[in-house]
């Protein structure tokens, strides 16, 4: 049976997820799903005081992403409309485990697994990774007010958490292909050849899956 393409672009803050997802959507004429970020009313306080605002922040993201995926499944995937998202809901586990206290995290996990049971899963993951200097530079360039207080140490730890999580994900989900791109060495916004190289890799996977 032919699979409806559902691509998720993932990676740490500032790596270029939204930009690449938008390019993919335009190139393949897929429905674009953008995660809700700046709409989170707790995020600004979170970057100032992670311990004090982590639970509210993570619960807002979880509930909104759940609703987005529910709508995407109902109105698009079930109607054979391909989708590209600039996130995978698994990222909630990465952030929550890093920021929540142990008792909060245990409660959070219970809610997470209830909400995500039987949710649509991407059949292709694109994992973007980059070093701290690249991430800080790109965060600065996009100029979001709520990101001005991001602690570089937190961002560095987040990149390590992503790397560890993705290694486990690849081992645990052998049937879900993961394309990894080192964004310290490519610029798919300014360099058309870099973007075309990414499209070529995606083409290969779409052909295999279908």
UniProtKB/TrEMBL annotation:
The active site is at residue 86. Residues 7-204 form the Deoxynucleoside kinase domain. The keyword Transmembrane helix does not apply. The keyword Transferase applies. One of its GO terms (cellular component) is cytoplasm. Keywords: ATP-binding, Kinase, Nucleotide-binding, Transferase. Signal peptide: none annotated. CDD domains: dNK (cd01673). InterPro entries: DCK/DGK, Deoxyribonucleoside_kinase, DNK_dom, P-loop_NTPase. GO terms for molecular function: ATP binding; deoxynucleoside kinase activity. It holds the Pfam family dNK. ATP binds at residues 11-19, 138-142. PANTHER family: DEOXYGUANOSINE KINASE, DEOXYNUCLEOSIDE KINASE. This is Deoxynucleoside kinase. It comes from Anaerobacillus isosaccharinicus. The lineage of its organism: Bacteria, Bacillati, Bacillota, Bacilli, Bacillales.
